[in-house]
Amino acid sequence: MNILHLWMFTQALVSSNALSNGCTNIIINATLKSKVFLPCHFNTSLYNNTVTWSHCKEALLRIVSNNRINFDNTREGRLNVFPLVFNEGNFSVLLDDLQAQDAGVYVCEMSTECWRIIIREVPQSTNHFLNPWFYFAAGAGLFTLLFTAVCLLSKCCEENASESSAVGGVLRDGLNPIQGT
Ligand SMILES: *[C@@H]1O[C@H](CO)[C@@H](O)[C@H](O)[C@H]1NC(C)=O
Ligand SMILES: *[C@@H]1O[C@H](CO)[C@@H](O)[C@H](O)[C@H]1NC(C)=O
Ligand SMILES: *[C@@H]1O[C@H](CO)[C@@H](O)[C@H](O)[C@H]1NC(C)=O
Ligand SMILES: *[C@@H]1O[C@H](CO)[C@@H](O)[C@H](O)[C@H]1NC(C)=O
Questions:
Q1: In this structure, are 153 and 64 located in the same domain?
Q2: What is the chain's mean pLDDT, rounded?
Q3: Cα-based distances in Å from 72 to 36, 46, 89, 114, 163
Q4: Same domain assignment for residues 35 and 77
Q5: Total domains present in the chain
Q6: What is the pLDDT at residue 45?
Q7: Total-model pTM
Q8: Distance 29 CA to ligand 1 centre (A)
Q9: Integer Cα distance of 113 and 83 in angstroms
């Protein structure tokens, strides 16, 4: 499950364009159930103010300058913070197990600066070739094919052959109209 999550995380493509209305704007395309990393960095020399994270204007958490975290909403424990890097001005968070209602605008603010991150939910496995399960399924299919081929060659499927003759036998015994008359 973790490997799957990791893949989904890397599949979430990130695009960024800085500075429109003072915020660093980022759009993240992510699939349901994936982990989504929401970046937020501020100049540490300004880190004296409360940093707030919100989702669609609903408060999620506040980090006050003594590194204390006040959660307003942990999103059922799916919202992770990285307190060890607060002092580097890194206030990024990680949202686990993306739900449909997690889409929308996230804002990380410190005084007048802000990061504005938009999570867009995108359908899963738009590209089958990026999906390891595609290779797994393809491998399983190939295995079945090879097994069948080997089976036919080594005549280990004779059991099937006798089964079909057994069916023939049933037909002869009971259902054959010629036998009935
Ligand atoms: C996100 O998806 C939209 C369409 O849904 C697409 O136009 C955009 O290029 C995608 N962005 C990235 C970074 O993949
Ligand atoms: C951080 O802010 C201080 C004070 O405003 C400024 O002198 C410094 O150049 C800034 N550093 C960066 C990397 O923006
Ligand atoms: C940080 O806060 C302290 C006390 O609250 C104040 O003395 C100092 O000037 C502030 N520094 C900045 C960069 O805002
Ligand atoms: C911010 O911290 C996170 C979590 O430790 C890390 O993954 C990320 O690379 C950091 N960002 C920067 C620019 O250092």
A1: no
A2: 76
A3: 19, 24, 21, 19, 67
A4: yes
A5: 2
A6: 78
A7: 0.64
A8: 6
A9: 20
